[in-house]
Amino acid sequence: GAVVSQHPSRVICKSGTSVKIECRSLDFQATTMFWYRQFPKQSLMLMATSNEGSKATYEQGVEKDKFLINHASLTLSTLTVTSAHPEDSSFYICSASRGVTEAFFGQGTRLTVV
Amino acid sequence: GQNIDQPTEMTATEGAIVQINCTYQTSGFNGLFWYQQHAGEAPTFLSYNVLDGLEEKGRFSSFLSRSKGYSYLLLKELQMKDSASYLCAPMDSNYQLIWGAGTKLIIKP
Description:
Number of strands of chain A: 11
Shape of chain A: globular
Strand content of chain A: over 45%
Structural class of chain A: mainly beta
Order of helices and strands of chain B: EEEEEEEEEE
Distance between the termini of chain B: 40 Å
Oligomer: heterodimer
Distance between the termini of chain A: 37 Å
Helix content of chain B: under 10%
C-alpha cells in the first residue's frame, strides 16, 4: 500500500513558540492532503484541505493565521502551529489522497505545549 | 446535516466473531471507509465499499446498504491485537470523509 510519512511523531514545545509538522507521500503523488486533529477519545476533526500549489481550505472555526499550511509539492505538505498554547496540545494527523477514494494516513504527531 | 452513528463500545471474546454496525446520513455519497485506530496511533485503512453488498478481506468483511444508509464491519477469529477503535467514515458528495467517534472494541481472553 501507499506510504505517508509524518514527522515528528512527538514534539514538546514552549508556549509561544512555533512548531512545524511535515507530511510526505513517499511512493505516490498526492493530489490532496488533509490535516486533522484529534483530542483524546474524540473523533478526528478535519482542520483543512490542501491542494498542491494553491491555498488551503480551512474548516469553520480553524484559524488560518495560527495553523499555517503549505503544500509546495505533490509529495509534501507542512502544518505550522504558530504561537502555540497549551490548548493546542493534541494529536495531529495528516492524510494524503491518491485519487478521490484513496486516503492514506501519516503516523500522527503528538504535540504537547508546556 | 451529516451524521454517523456507531456504538460507543463493544466487548467480545478472543476467537469469536463481532459485528460493528454503522448508520450514516451524508450530503451525497461516494463510498464508505472503515478504519482501525489503536490508542495513540493514526487510523489504518481496513476497507472501502461503494456498491451494495459484502466485501471480504481475510478475517475482516464489510457490508454496505446504500438505500438504508447502513454498513457493518465483521471481524472473525478475534485476536487480542484487534482491540482498538473502529471508525466508520462515509465520503460525501465533495469527496470529504465524515468521521464519527468510532467504536471501541475490547477483546477479552
